[in-house]
Amino acid sequence: MFDFPEAIRGLKEADVPFEGCKAYMVQGEGEQVLFMSFERDVELPVHAHEAQWGIVLSGRIDLTIGDRSATYAKGDNYYIPKGVSHGGRIHAGYADMTYFDQKDRYRFRMGS
Length: 112
Known about the structure:
The chain is mainly beta. Helices cover 4% and strands 48% of the residues. The protein has one helix and nine strands; from the N terminus they run αβββββββββ. The protein has one helix at 6-9, and strands at 21-27, 32-38, 42-47, 52-58, 60-65, 68-73, 77-80, 86-90, 95-100. A five-stranded antiparallel sheet has the order 1-2-9-4-7, with no helix packed on it. It has a four-stranded antiparallel sheet with strand order 3-8-5-6, with no helix packed on it. The mean pLDDT is 97.
């Protein structure tokens, strides 16, 4: 898992439905910011939601956003506009910081 600083590890955990994912979340009035780390490969089924912007901190992710496919690695960022279908593959060792323009994309993990 990516070694987030103590200030991030002190945040509440998000309930993200991917096995091998650890996610810490900041909840705003109309948005969420997640700091996510993956220890396993994850297939992302095609889906759509409100706008999303991510910054890759380590590893790589293969994304198809609309009709454009690309691989993003450390230092890259990506943007998914509201309502645009996207999916792909997260590779083990991937970590990012992701902004969701949606207040209820994820919930806090119970007991965190």
